[in-house]
Every structure is written in structure tokens, then in C-alpha cells.
Amino acid sequence: MALLAPFGRECPIYNSIFMQTIDAFILYTQPEQAKITVKALKQSELIKTIYLLTPDETATPVEGCEKIIIDRLQSSQTIRKIAANSTADYTLVYQKPSILKPGYFALERMMRIALDTRAGMVYADYFAIMDGKKKNNPLIDYQEGSLRDDFNFGSLLLYDADALKEAATRMDENYEFAGLYDLRLKVSQHHPLVHINEYLYSEIEEDNRTSGEKIFDYVDPKNRQVQIEMEQACTQHLKEVGAYLAPQFEEIEFNANYFEREASVIIPVRNRIKTIRDAITSVLQQKTSFPFTLIVIDNHSTDGTTEAIDEYKHDERLIHIIPERDDLGIGGCWNLGVHHPQCGKFSVQLDSDDLYSGEDTLQKIVDAFYEQQCAMVVGTYRMTNFHLEEIPPGIIDHREWTPHNGRNNALRINGLGAPRAFYTPVLRDIKLPNTSYGEDYALGLAISRRYRIGRIYDLLYLCRRWEENSDASLDIVKMNAHNLYKDRIRTWELQARKQLTSEKGK
Is the pLDDT of residue 10 over 80? Predict the structure, then answer.
């Protein structure tokens, strides 16, 4: 009896991969770029047909490829064209117009993982080439709460063609910008999206901005129409998975608890000698019709911040707390301040880097609680440099928040705005996670599950961006850790909302 060759065509393991085929769809903007990418893709025997996606009807064809005229890659129309033309077992989409350099047997590896996991889509870590230098670009695992439309899958996506086509048949809207996002959400409803944490290709990275510059892209006014479509697609997804919440809220009874003071501003701080005086002064200058306190939780500063805070101890409104514990993050410091016996009815945020824009900020925030009958209020802020000079994107008002759908859209975006203020009894009940990143976002999601969140669109706050901000310039590992944690927060919240809607449906 003849033995099968271990790596020959007769090998059943080999056949399980090579009986499959891939149709590749690549953006086509420059003939030379396309030729190099096409040549690289054709090195794999898995490739069946290569399609060039271009809005230019006069674009020069590339030998051995078929041309498809599109408006833009992200549109629903383009997704439907990809689905209609894909006749192979798998569909490869390359999203960048730059040259793609697949790794050695990269497509075979992606195919193998896709088959083994029955994934609806697989994506992989990659090498980013910036200024001629190759850098590792690891990605993070996709999870149920990875609803951000800017989730980084890299630019090379391998879809199970049947999963893609089935999802495309359920794409009822004609999005101009949210088609690819809509596709991803719909595929994820029935299939896993699998991260291959191996470096399987190289691509040119053209966005050289720091992490601190990128995080506000979604509130840039020029992206408003994009955000409207993304919100619509995400809201529909939440309805389809049973996590959508209608605009029905629990009422707040503000007189149910007694407080000596109407409000408290809470500042957690550690080693902010350059900014803490500005922050404290902006609070003590507030003019209000009610008594308030300023609670500063000084988390064992070592740079003179403690002494700077003590300069204001003559003002009886200032409560300076140095925790007995040494394991508190920003969230833990907030919990300490909120549970202080002199904390007011409303707890108002001020970061130690920042300051209020006027003397009436605190009054406006407290008035908004009563006017809007809400458990949390979020204001509007201006981005500035250290010297309080406005920097892009300028004023951030988070107008994507609406009373009827804000708490659903909150699962898609990465933050809710500033300054943030809370009805203290609700805050004491929910509590913040003891972290120094994402703690405010987790709290906002939890509050919005049950209560109204009010908005103030007047400018209330100056948010400094400078080199000592925690997210000013993060390396890829730290940025991934932050994104993974916020996705986990969204996953927990999504699961909680599913339970809530399920219980209401009984």
C-alpha cells in the first residue's frame, strides 16, 4: 500500500485547504501599485479571481484582473457588488490603495484559521511601514462589545463568502459611508470574527498622528454625516441582537435624600504641580446660589502638588484628602470622594489638568439636573494647549448624543464628553471601577441604562492637551490595552442590556 506524500496534492490535509479558493477585491488608484499587489497575490494558488475596485471608469486595466466601478469602498452599493461578484469560497478585501506585501504563505494561513474556526471573517497582525521603517502593528481580539466603527482590523480581511453574501442580503439601507461597518456587524451576528495574532502582511501606514490626535476624529464636524450613518447601522444592530433600549427612563426624586450642600466638585490628582492651582482656582471662583465643596483626592503626590493644595486650606470649602490606601486609580479616588460625608447632592468632575471656562459653570450644571430631570449631566468643552490656546478640533459638544438614542449610540463611541456631573445617590450606588482609564465611560454607560443623561451645549470647560496627558502619545501596546478594556466595558454593558430587554419582554 503506497503512502501518501506528506505535502503533496494527494495529502487530504493539503486538499482541505487547496480545494478552497479566494476571490480578491483590491482598491485600484494607481496602475503600478495595483500591478505589484496583484503579482504578490497571484503567488498563492488559492487565488481564483482578482477584482480591481475603482471609481474611475477610464482606469487602465491590469492584465488578468477584472474591473468593478464603485463609488467608494465603504458604501453599501460596493458591498453588494463584492457579494454579487464573489464566486469563490472566500472573499479577500484589501482596503488600502497602497502596495500590499503578503507574508510567506499568509493567505494559506488565513484560510487554515478560517476553516478551523468557521469564522465569518479573519484578520491578522501586520507590519506597518512608516517613513521607510517597518514596525510591528499588533491588533486586539474582537468581542461582542467591539462596536466602535473605528475598530482596527488592519486593511486585509478574509471573509467566508457565504457569510458575506448572507449578511449582504440583510443590508436594507443604502449607506454612503457605513456599508463596510454594517457588513461587519451583520456577519458578527452569526459568525465569529477571528483575530490571528501573527504578522501576516506589510502595508504602508500614512497616518502618522499621535494617539492623542486621533481619538477625536469622530467628533470632527466634517465627519458628521459619517457619524449619522454609523449610528444608524449600530442602532439597527442593537435591535437585531436584543440590546436596544427605547427612550424610557426611571424618574429621579431629588428630595429623597438630605444633603447639607448642593454640589461638590471632585478632583483626583497625582503629581500635577503645573496645573493643580489653575484647577482649584477655577472651582473656588464659581458663583452659585447654593453652597458647595471642593473635594481634592491627592493620591500620594511627590512633586509638590500636596503643598500646592495646602495653599488653599484657608478656604473652608476645600476638603483635602490623602487616601490611607495606596491602591487607588482615578475611579477609586472618585469613589472615596463621593462617599465622603461632606459630598454634595451633585458630584461634578474636574480633571487636575483642566479648568472651568467661566464662573457660572457649576450653577449651569446644577440647574440642568432639575430642568432635564436626569441622573447625569455632560457639558461642552474646548480643546486647548497648555497655555489655554485653542487647538483642533476646537469645541467638542458631542451633538451625536440625542435624547431618543444617545444611550444606544453610547455603545459605539469612545466617550461621552466633559465636564461630567452625577446625582450623588446614583453614583454611590453604581460606583466607578478602580481604574485610571475608561472609568468615566463605564459609569456613563451604566447610568444611561436606567436614567436620562442631560446635555449642556454651552461651553463649560477647557480641556488641556499636553505632553503629560495620560493619552497624549501612547505606544501601540498601551493603546491596544485601552481599546481592549473599553471593548470589554461595552461587552459587559451589552450583555446587561440584553438581560434587561429579555426580562421586559417576559
Answer: no
